[in-house]
Write a structure and sequence with these properties.
The protein is built from 3 helices and 2 strands. A two-stranded antiparallel ribbon has the order 1-2. It starts with 10 loop residues before the first strand and ends with a helix. It has one domain.
């Protein structure tokens, strides 16, 4: 299965998070760590340096 160029990954990496939120990379790391900790407390398996795009969209204000 080949990923199409416009198809987004299920996960956001820190650089993309910084761009989405218009914050510095160190601040994006802090936000990512906080959101991943929330997911871990709910029993989800998390990967450092990546954040579920779905969870980010749920937690972001618009």
């Amino acid at each position: 299965m080949t990923k199409q160029p416009e198809e987004k990954s299920k996960f956001v990496r820190v650089q993309e998070l910084a761009e989405i939120l218009d914050v510095s990379v160190p601040h994006a790391y802090r936000i990512m760590r906080k959101l991943n900790n929330e997911l871990e407390e709910k029993g989800y398996i998390i990967t450092a340096g990546r954040l579920s795009r779905k969870y980010l969209e749920e937690r972001m204000y618009n």
